[in-house]
Design a protein that fits this description.
With 288 residues, this protein is of the alpha+beta class. Helices cover 31% and strands 26% of the residues. Helix 1 runs antiparallel to helix 2 (73-90). The chain is globular, with a radius of gyration of 19 Å. It has helices spanning 54-66, 73-90, 146-159, 168-188, 241-264; strands at residues 2-6, 9-16, 25-30, 33-40, 47-48, 52-53, 103-111, 115-121, 125-130, 135-137, 208-213, 217-223, 281-287.
Length: 288
């Protein structure tokens, strides 16, 4: 974890790889701009220059655009989206097929003297925590993975023997095969039912943006979904109450360690349905 001191505020950051080979998350701190990005590669898992996934390139391409810090954030988001398309074309990606597209979620803020400018896409999260301990999630979006994770949970209940004599990895492989069509369906809904930066012009209509006053704001959290506390039952809308309480009690590093500890106890993702044991994490905590 890194700690940076700005006048009157303290910024803590975490950028940590999960169980995958590459960290597809990315983090930006540039002057008064702070942002996190969660890349997702194409379903064909093709690699590109220096053996990088499309998700890795997408998150870093978007982050590089925001680092310029020279336009309103919604305009930078549109430029980042265009830059991802340009990168895909230059790498020979057939962008006519949705499953080939790289994408990234994003949550970016610009801290001003009295307010916070922000833009968000995908499942990255921005939370304001007030002096009285209450909090507000700036985008209360529906989790587009809810249906998939619910099916995963049902498959666990149906197929995992109660005596646990079967190799759990065999069960996992079987369930992933059964969910392949569902995962492809969700991916085909990009910028139709939910938004991400993936080069499509339709992504611009799904951008969430605004400006919030900073009076009575004590903390700001910006993070990718790798920092989410594992839940035994998937919910269509995530409740971040426990996450905020844990952060206030333990700090950003303590929150991360608690999440990693819970995940480690469920390496096959059977108790807490999710796509991998440890997801990548990009997180920023600001204390005013």
């Amino acid at each position: 974890m890194e700690i940076t001191h700005y006048p009157k505020i303290e910024v803590q950051t975490i950028l940590e790889k999960g169980t995958a080979v590459q960290n597809e998350d990315f983090l930006v701190i540039q002057d008064n701009i702070l942002g996190v990005f969660d890349g997702a590669t194409s379903l064909n898992s093709r690699k590109f220059g220096r053996d990088r996934t499309g998700g890795t390139i997408a998150s870093r391409t978007a982050g590089a655009v925001f680092k310029k810090n020279h336009f309103p954030l919604n305009q930078l988001a549109c430029q980042a989206n265009d830059a991802i398309m340009a990168q895909m074309i230059s790498n020979g990606v057939d962008t006519s097929r949705t499953e080939n597209l790289w994408s990234t979620s994003a949550a970016v803020v610009r801290i001003k003297a009295q307010s916070l400018e922000w833009v968000q896409a995908g499942d990255a999260v921005i939370i304001l925590i007030y002096e009285n301990g209450s909090h507000r999630v700036l985008v209360n979006r529906e989790d587009h993975d809810h249906e998939t994770l619910t099916l995963w949970k049902e498959l666990v209940r149906t197929h995992l023997p109660q005596d646990h004599q079967t190799d759990p990895q065999q069960i996992i492989d079987m369930m992933r095969g059964k969910l392949a069509h569902q995962i492809r369906k969700v991916r085909s809904d990009m910028n139709i039912t939910y938004g991400v930066l993936n080069g499509e012009k339709t992504a611009e209509a799904f951008l969430n943006q605004g400006e919030e006053p900073l009076d009575r704001v004590a903390h700001l959290l910006i993070f990718t979904d790798g920092l989410s506390i594992p839940q035994p039952e998937p919910e269509p809308h995530k409740d971040f109450t426990d996450l905020v309480k844990t952060y206030l009690n333990l700090g950003l590093e303590g929150l991360k360690q608690m999440i990693r500890s819970q995940e480690k106890k469920d390496p096959h993702c059977l108790a807490f349905p999710r796509f991998k044991c440890h997801d990548d994490i990009a997180a920023i905590a600001v204390r005013f």
